[in-house]
Amino acid sequence: MTWILIGAILMAGLWGVVNRPNMIKKVMALSIANSAVILMFVYHGSLSGDTAPIEGNGGTMVDPLPQALMLTAIVVGVCVMSMALVLVYRLHRKYGTLDMREVEGKAWKLRD
Amino acid sequence: MVWVLLSPMLGATAALFGSLFERFRGTACVISTISLAVPAVLLALLTGPVMEGEVLQHSLGGWSPPWGINLVMDGLAWVSASLTTLIAVAVALFALDSGKYGARFFFFLLMMAVGMYGVALTGDLFTMFVCFEIIAVSVYVLVAWEGTGTGLAASLKYLILSTTGIMIFLFGVFLIYRDLGVLSISGVSEALRAAGGVRNTPVMHLALASLCVGIGVRTAFIPFHTWLPEAHAYAPHPISAFLSGAMIKISFFAMVRIVLEFGGDYLMDLLMWIGAFTALAAVLSALSQTDVKRLLAYHSISQLGYILAVFGAGSSLALTASFLHALNHALFKSLLFLTVGAAVSFTGERNIYRIHGLGSRMPVVAAAFFVGALSISGIPPFNGYASKAFITMGMKGSGAYPLLWATSFLTMASFIKLGRIFLPFSRSGAEYDRKERPPGILETSVVAVLALMCLGTGVFGSQVAGFMHSMLYGTELVTAPRLFTAGSLLKTLPMIALGILAWRMVLTGPGRSLSGRVRALAPQLRTVLIFFFAGLLAFAAVAY
Amino acid sequence: MDRTDTGRAGMNRKTTILDLISRKLAPFMLLFGLYVLTYGHASPGGGFQGGVVIASGVILLFVAQGVEAAERLFPFATLSRVETMAFLAFIGAGLAGIAAGIGFLGNPMVLVEVSAAPRAGMVLLLNLVIGIEVGSGVSLICLRLFREE
Ramachandran region of residue A56, left (φ > 0), alpha (ψ -120 to 50) or beta? Predict the structure, then answer.
């Protein structure tokens, strides 16, 4: 069941990336799809135990490796998203629109 | 060995320092360029042990592999790191002399180099992902550096495509971790062998396909190439050279490593056909471009198709040929981007038909450009000829070779078209509004050195290939094509004739209208993404 | 409630609720960020998380108090200087490992008597440096965006 939900989040994100013309929504959708992959890792890691991986907690600890890796992936995701939003912001100031189709139409006007 | 990674990182610190305090700006740029050159010395010192087949390992901070980051230096890593060093130093010197770029620019340039060394040296998949993202974030900044609308849009387009791609890569990493529980490349390779190869583990098919697609976006073969023309064309000139010369090669080498280590032999045929098709389709687009840098960008895709196709042929000679062409392409394509970039910034004009007669204004740069153009067209004795001879031999008897053969004379045709901007005389004698000074001494000497290297690796093509083969396999190259016999030299004549013919055909009326129509095929991001996912599904299906 | 009250025109006007809560909340957010930073080696948390919590405190001040007021507390130039210095310190801490003969990012503390210095010392130091770096970096990104408007 959880896998299906995570898959649904992933699909929703990918659908948004493809189908939303608004640049900010595209970036948000990317972020959503990225979170789905991160969720997969963390959920898979959480199946292997039942307490947080802290020294001295006792019990069966979950696999700490996916959490450590996904923390890095989240950091990377934050960097990319902030970069994307800065680009969107500056494109908006340049072209006065958030519609990717319009922006592309104006940007690729090849001078012949 | 860790200093290969550390030295550009220290240089980046210096550059950041320079961007903060005005006084140190010039010094910081120089220091960062030097720090890029340091890995060359270190790699040269490592040549001996690596050639003897030794695999050097280093754990960062003394943490052992499953938790820490493990760096691995083998032949493949050595080749990719050296290629990065070669191009990075040239690019940094060029950027240093043009004086347009401040210390902050150097910071991002160096971080990009750090990411590339990371991808080349890393021993596990997750660190590879992180390093790919380090490269990517720096590239986004650098492509948008000039702040023009087109640069920003190109950067955003690249961002969306490559983030989607790297997400798929991460998904592949997840599948591997779920099924095998290890992430180090050698560990995965062992686990797969213990399980009886990829064939016995259906999930791994999907994982391998995801990894290939994720890297494929960076490597830019069809159908994942769509970001490249814009990103390369509208980036600052040194960055175009660096992207085209080193970045797409580094991702290609990463893919080679993954496919070879994980037993992806069944992907070879697919990669060969994709490569051949990429080469032909991209050169046709290139032939129809009028923007000089877009033309070169399409040629990057096309030459990458060559590299991929001959890698797909599978033999050890083919792999050597592929790496030799990667090296040669890095040399001549960064040379071409730098010379054409100098022309573009000198004239302030990007249209191929509005730049003339630069040959008399900047004779050395023009000569270097012609060396690059002859190299890419495969004219002896330059290096393109040498690696194309190796490719011909590596692809012998394969069905995809005719596509590559057609590509090579079309390449020639498009460079005849491009070459007119550097001819020493101009028909109309147009004066430019001299936006910038002509290229300085350092810039000129950088392109001159690159041109000499093109000539050198061409004349000594067999020796370079032999060296590369012993780097990769630790053995001598047994069979090699003889480069400069009368028969093989004569074979280039019909190519030249066909090239000139194709160029004349483009200039006729139907040719012009057709190329205009190809040029107008600028697909929107939505179409591109649908294309991308269709490609992903097809890749996964064929890989099954 | 009139629509213009919450629309663009109202953007420069502070409401009492926002003003009061942000004033009371921000110091605690900064404090909590520091806590997450300094206990990262022994409990969930660490450099990045703590840094982001600190940055969110700073951003709250930017949003609620206005850029001018918040910039008196966190000037732009200082933030970017601090960020650079933190990066330098991080590389320096990494080099300390090489000086101790363990390699980049090695923990030199393992060479010292365990009772004299806690082994977590190096991790704590790295966490602090990373926290400062991330906190100032993320605040800088937002400050840039707010200022250009």
Answer: left
